[in-house]
Amino acid sequence: MKQRILPIFIPQYACPFNCIFCNQKIISGEKEEVSLDRIKRQIEQGLKINSDEHVELAYYGGNFTAIDIDFQKKLLELANSFKKIKSIRISTRPDCIDEERLRFLKLYNVKTIELGIQSMFDDVLNACARGHTAQHSKNAMAMIKKFGFLLGVQVMVGLPKSTLEKDIETAKILTSFSPDIARVYPTLVIEGTYLAKMYQRGEYEPLSLNEAVERCSQIKSIFIEKGVNVIRVGLQPTEEINYNAKVLAGPFHPSFGELVDSEIIFRKVVERLHGKKYSKILFMVHPKNYSKLVGQKKSNITRFKQLFSHAEIEVLCNSEQVGRIKIITESNETVVDISRL
């Protein structure tokens, strides 16, 4: 039976530092303060929406393992008091993981621990006022795997002092610790953050949308190739981010994740067809992946026509092509696997 995640946001709760890019109350949309009454009400509401029998409750947005131990215990006991909740997921900082904390979490049905790593370069972490080092991240990942938890890693691209090479190397280093899941976020300039002040003073220039899509597509590909399940790319659109101008600058797009998948597909197709001339190229794709293949405003089709200028290009929807794209030319047939996007 498929497990559903029920997110509960505790924005910046117990965070010892104010990272320059972070304003979790705006990002999460959670306006109420953290309290057992609020969380119990939200769990009850969330369980009513869906009748799934297997639910994993996720405490997001805060620094869970730095919360007062008595309150941690109450939050975990509250989650475990609901029969439908079969496991718990938490997010925390790399420097707030140790063996004592992990032994405690094992007692309360915690299955997954997501680490806000962001970068594996200390100069980037220092520039962002993270308050931890890359070595903290290495130690935390190793311990989490040792104790048998599922390991999640969160990375950000385009941070101050970072580069394309550093962002790619960060992903490569992380895969060496065999994380189970990953999240990839482009850096956005959010209102009310120190990064916003830096941007307004001309001290920080965010990535363009095209740069962010290209960079995130490379990083997602690195994770996929190493068997890491990338569960999110880009911030999830919320009412505030979309409509109340909380993003001052940066590569925000309501369908950012699809743009990244579309770029990955484009590169996979070109790699498969590169070096030959064709008179006709026929793509057969499942309807749910049609938009990813053709690209936003058919941008991929435009690029295919530029690269294969002598070819007639046609796209057909075929429900049999689940998780793959069949490419038929006058000389052969080939398949591009997109099942892990």
From TrEMBL:
The keyword Phosphoprotein is assigned to this record: no
Gene3D superfamilies: tm_1862 like domain (3.80.30.20)
Organism superkingdom: Bacteria
Keywords: 4Fe-4S, Iron, Iron-sulfur, Metal-binding, S-adenosyl-L-methionine
Transmembrane segments: none
Any single Pfam family the record assigns to this protein: Radical_SAM_C
Domain annotation Radical SAM core: ranges: 1-229
Molecular function terms, GO-annotated: 4 iron, 4 sulfur cluster binding; catalytic activity; metal ion binding
GO biological process: tRNA wobble base 5-methoxycarbonylmethyl-2-thiouridinylation
GO cellular component, one term: cytoplasm
Listed name of the protein: Radical SAM domain protein
Lineage of origin: Bacteria, Bacillati, Bacillota, Bacillota incertae sedis, Caldicellulosiruptorales
